[in-house]
Write a structure and sequence with these properties.
- Helix content is 67%, strand content 0%.
- The chain is elongated, with a radius of gyration of 24 Å.
- The mean pLDDT is 81.
């Protein structure tokens, strides 16, 4: 068999296998009933979304540092040593709610600047504030390391 014929056979075989698999998946999905708690399909974030997320994360981190009376570099060094933000807040006699309010005080101006600059939109800013209000304080329990895949 020539190289061209071999490539054609592989291509046709792969295409038909993919078609059969997709038909099987479609029929299984068609038979299942949608639930009330259906989850959205994950899509890749656009570069603009990633930039907005990074800008918000940086603003929150800087706000945490400012609330604690530290520079962002000093807070980063403390986290690398294993210190938790909760430990730093407790040293100032703040609980999680009190510290969250301090962070929000610092964060509001930073988010307003990002919205004005067009880096993020108001919805993204509101979502960041809502997360802090719900008690999600980054690094409260220390720095979390990602597991390598």
């Amino acid at each position: 068999m020539t190289w061209f014929a071999g490539a054609a056979v592989k291509l046709v075989g792969a295409a038909s296998a993919a078609a059969l698999l997709s038909l099987g998946a479609v029929s299984v999905l068609a038979q299942s009933t949608p639930s009330a708690t259906a989850t959205a399909v994950a899509t890749k974030a656009s570069p603009a979304d990633k930039a907005a997320h990074r800008a918000i994360a940086k603003a929150v981190f800087e706000s945490e540092a400012a609330a604690l009376g530290l520079t962002p570099e000093a807070l980063k060094a403390e986290l690398k040593k294993g210190t938790k933000v909760s430990d730093l807040a407790k040293a100032k006699n703040w609980d999680k709610t009190m510290f969250g309010n301090q962070v929000l005080g610092q964060l509001s101006g930073r988010l307003k600047t990002l919205v004005t600059a067009g880096t993020i939109n108001q919805t993204q800013a509101n979502k960041a504030v809502e997360r802090i209000n719900k008690g999600h304080i980054p690094y409260w329990d220390g720095k979390h390391h990602r597991t390598k895949k």
